[in-house]
Fold:
Amino acid sequence: MRKQEYAIVDIETTGGNASHSRITEIAIIIHDGSTVLERYETLVNPEKDIPPSIFGLTGINNEMVAHAPIFDDISEKVMEMLTDRIFVAHNVNFDYSFVHHQLAQAGLKWTAKKLCTVRAARKIKPGLGSYSLGNLCNSLNIGLENRHRAGGDADATAQLFSLLREWDDEGVIDQMIKKTAQDQRLPPNLPQEDFNALPEKPGVYYFYNQAKKVIYVGKAVNLKKRVTSHFTGNNINQQRQHFLRDIYGISFEVCATELMALLLECTEIKKLWPTYNRALKRFEAKFGIYQYEARNGYKYLAIGKVSKFQICIHEFNSLHTGINLLRSLAEQFEIDHRFCKYSRPEEGDFFYTPEVKELPDPLLHNEQVDNAIDFLLHNRPSFAIIDKGRSADERSCIWIENGHFHGMGYIPRDTAIHDPEDVKSYVTLYKSNQYIEQLIFAYAEKYPGKVFFNKHFTK
Structure:
């Protein structure tokens, strides 16, 4: 039986992700765990221009690769050297994604077990200031020539690998290369202990970059399972590759229910506006209902786009929702439809059609508009949702005030709740938005038995 061998790989590319970029140089060093057995290195014609920023980093330009082989021409050689060997690289998922993608484009199906020397170094030599290849070479007295070239970086990685094997008294590397090794799927800069601390409970998790700034907020029914899902698979799109490289830490907050996790996620995204959150940013209110008075003394209600410089009475995610509410208010308070605008008017705009019935009495009309606004602001339901807690010793509570999310928190199970003030004293205040309110009202309609202090939701 042949001794286990390793293919230590480094590549240079035209960019940061395999789906839109191409390999410009590749070096493969075959290693048996202690000795280098074989070495292969070549420039590769990427069949596309090399950006100036990449030339500045690597020194590889279009002229240098113009007469180099394209990847298809070397694919069988690369496949031969990688087959039945452990794929080793510094930040292994980056190199693996490119090689896997370009072999597949050449019609070759290949997979391999992987070993990341960043993660191995973190485990075997903990406490170093940085685990970038350049800084590790400085810390561990490894010679590094031709930095940011495939051959130079591969040689340095091979030396690092030999040292790690020598220092590995606890069999860390053998554990890491097992197919089921969990940490092999983790981003290279994420400490294993951050991932290990995640519980299998509902809650909200936060990803941090190197500057300890939150770059992503997510909610989960099972925190451990959900975070793991970010790191599995071989997705090569640009956003995911950049996302994984930017993750340097994780924190979390356990929530009693999925609803509370959803609410916390929404408010945290609104507050922190993380770089990689996109989905919930769509739910920022885009339209509002406005009231204005024309020069003739009549008050109007109008739907328009939300502006930083104008205060609206109520906000909506969609124009359709706003129009429906305005129509409902006009019918409930008998407001003449001619004074309801379904797009934001210019100041002083006045709608009047002479051939229709005469205009209503201005005092009565304005009173009807004021009543509609007062109803919208002050007569929406207030209620509590009381649910299970994070443990058997508590209950969770969510409070809605005049139709707006007021806050949420936890109440000791042995505490008696007699009125709304008892609930409100236990909640942490949060900002509301229409998306959050939709979530809460839908939940209250579905589970009326968990709603207290409001007759709208019958038990």
About this structure: Confidence is low (pLDDT under 50) at residues 345-355. The CA atoms of residues 44 and 74 lie 9 Å apart. The first strand starts at residue 6 and ends at 13.
